[in-house]
């Protein structure tokens, strides 16, 4: 795609890309399917397109709308240090619609005990209902912009969780958060190797805020979950995900070109090879539909 040349970009679960020019401070939302653009404040500090360095993750509070750009807040998470950048699209009005704002937080304020644990959780941050959520070992942290960033820590009742069976050969686990129909889900993978290539078990849990617990679910409500190491997303196969099957989890693993399809009803996993011309250790990039 010509629009990607000369830009750094970050995919979001809403399908829009956050774009940053390499040769100028310009930043914007871009819909790769329609070509629509929404201007964002310039990156004068260079944390995205210039010399900011380090790993970043971009999230949106909701799906952008060209007709009403103020509806969406853009959040950039630094995955090397406890720093957030956020803004609203240009023309949105308000105090945060004219520039990127920087916020440095203490990892303890987010409910974490170590720097490493908060950065790991920030890498799996998900947006639900205008708020951002992350999961820690025994708690969930919610990040709101009121308008300043504010964390709320919600303790978990671990006794109600029913994790997937831990196989004798399993050595580690990983998880990803997924927003679906206004609820927050956690997809947990039990792994049989430290390189995160072999999955021994998969469990899906919904956050019940009233019970302050993750509750295991037996169905995805006909939705298809797509889980990537950068984000998770939920799709309706009847409306916007032609070719996908409901109550299935489509997932990719780091350094693995394959697409895996876990059918929750049958308890089976199928493997799709995107092409023999690709090296086995290629990592997939995923673009979600925008409408």
UniProtKB/TrEMBL annotation:
Residue span(s) of domain KIB1-4 beta-propeller: 3-263
Source organism phylogeny: Eukaryota, Viridiplantae, Streptophyta, Embryophyta, Tracheophyta
Alphabetical list of InterPro entries matching this protein: KIB1-4_b-propeller (IPR005174)
Any Pfam family hit: Beta-prop_KIB1-4
Top-rank taxon, per record: Eukaryota
Protein name (Swiss-Prot/TrEMBL): KIB1-4 beta-propeller domain-containing protein
